[in-house]
Amino acid sequence: MKTIKLHDKEFRPFISAKEIDFAVTNMAEQLAKDLKDEVPVFVGILNGSFMLVSDFVKKYPKPCEVTFIKLASYEGVKSTEDIQRLIGLTQDLTGRTVVILEDIIDTGNTLNEIHRIFKNENVKQLLIATLFYKPEAYKKDFKLHYIGKEIPNKFIVGYGLDYDGLGRDLPEVYQLKTTQHMTNLVLFGPPGAGKGTQA
Ligand code: 5GP
Ligand code: MG
Ligand code: MG
């Protein structure tokens, strides 16, 4: 792994594919243990979660169902709380154990929308599993049931996560190289903010 350039920014190696694999395996095995004979419906949040979902269900050692919803958030000029539903739920989840699979939980605004979506679905339980979590950025009170890895409040790419469209295909995770004067920019949103970005 070495430093990479995407568009105008440089990123340094941060989390290896091996470390990601370890975190995903742990989450999948712990969840399977906790759910006993319950057959969960995994709901991946597109786009960012596509790689996690693919790996997670392969590690999950019991029967399960998989579906996706697609959300987009807008940053910069518009509030990040303005989350759009591009593809919604297409099946009845009444009485089911639903496990949300998220690539990353940052401010929690997307999670807020997820809770809104599931409020009227009469599910048996809604569990949240996220591969990455930025505790310093999280502004909500929703419980996070399964966390792969806590990370600092810095912008990352790879393993499904993009910088303005690039980087989703990378099997490992990279962190934006920052100088001191860029720290505020990173704290208040990913570079490219101001355009609509897809989760
Ligand atoms: P939220 O702030 O709503 O918790 O996160 C919104 C979305 O922003 C996430 O689903 C994710 O797609 C994106 N996001 C948050 N933090 C990062 C990051 O560090 N890198 C990238 N590429 N996307 C992020
Ligand atoms: Mg994005
Ligand atoms: Mg996401």
What does this molecule look like?
- The protein has 199 residues and is an alpha/beta fold.
- The chain has a single domain, classed as Rossmann fold (3-Layer(aba) Sandwich).
- The chain has helices spanning 17-35, 50-59, 109-118, 183-187; strands at residues 4-6, 9-15, 41-46, 65-74, 83-87, 97-105, 125-133, 146-150, 156-157, 173-176, 196-198.
- Strand 6 (97-105), helix 3 and strand 7 (125-133) form a beta-alpha-beta unit.
- It is globular.
- The structure holds guanosine-5'-monophosphate (5GP) and magnesium ion (2 copies).
- The site of guanosine-5'-monophosphate has 19 residues, from strand 6, helix 3 and strand 9.
- Keywords: ATP-binding, Cytoplasm, Kinase, Nucleotide biosynthesis, Nucleotide-binding, Transferase.
- Monomer.
- ATP binds at residues 192-197.
Helical run tally: 4
Q: Please, how many domains?
A: 1
Please tell me what the overall shape is: globular
Structural class: alpha/beta
Strand content: 25-35%
What is the N-to-C succession of helices and strands?
Answer: EEHEHEEEHEEEEHE
Question: What fraction, in percent, of the residue positions are helical?
Answer: 10-25%
Biggest sheet layout = 7 strands, mixed
The small-molecule ligands in this entry are: guanosine-5'-monophosphate, magnesium ion
Protein name: Adenylate kinase
Domain Phosphoribosyltransferase: 20-163
Binding site for ATP: 192-197
Pathway: Purine metabolism; AMP biosynthesis via salvage pathway; AMP from ADP: step 1/1
